[in-house]
Request: fold
Amino acid sequence: MPALADDTALVIIDVQTDFCPGGALAVADGDAVVPILNRLSALFGTVVLTQDWHPAGHASFASGHPGAAPFSMTAMPYGPQVLWPDHCVQGTPGAAFHPDLDVTRAQMIVRKGFRPDIDSYSAFFENDRATATGLAGYLADRGIRHVVLGGLATDFCVRYSALDGRAVGLAVTLVEDACRAIDLDGSRDAAMAEMRGAGVAIATADALVG
Reply:
């Protein structure tokens, strides 16, 4: 199967407690991706996890902007920014991977959003679109030419990771049933259309496993 070849990596995006039901920025049904990703991770020789890792008082938190409501927009030096509830604060239980996620197969964890003044959705670049996380170089060194993505959330961190994966020259497959969306004002459908337009392949876990 091409999706499971040696030059293919599974990248699991932000499957953390705060993004799952009961968390500070819960994605509806977010924990449903865990068994699917566990099943997939056993099939890949290269597995990468990303982890939102914000310092307290991060600039993207609505709590730091007097009068601003969560999910409102603000202008940052790097462009428009959604203001989020405080989430995935370094060292807190909410920043931990979901307890049922099998992390034993992962060779690398990419922590992102740790710079206080720049949010980071993508596994490849922070939101200034210039600061690299180092993932592209790691994958190149491993001979990876194709990434398979799943995790949270479809319309933000997964979307930006998929688009940036294409931008750095990788083939990208999104495992649709291994993702869940926040879906702000139709953002899921817009994200899916944008990813398809960029050449991201859409598949199901069963299709990959065969």
Notes: The radius of gyration is 16 Å.
